[in-house]
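Sorry, I am new here, but would you mind making up a protein's amino acid sequence and the tokens describing how it folds?
***
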Amino acid sequence: MLEAKATGACIGLPIDLQPEDCHSITCKLGTFKTSMLQDVEAGKVACEGSEFVLI
């Protein structure tokens, strides 16, 4: 998050939140699966080394 914040500031897109603020917001969302994880579990995407490949 700190790297993203620094990069955003360099390109004129500052991030006002601190990492701790983002973490507390995320914790309030509860348990969920990202769409990429859902795709992998459904067999739509395969992981080959460090790359993801659509099937």
About this structure: Residues 45 and 54 are 5 Å apart (CA to CA).
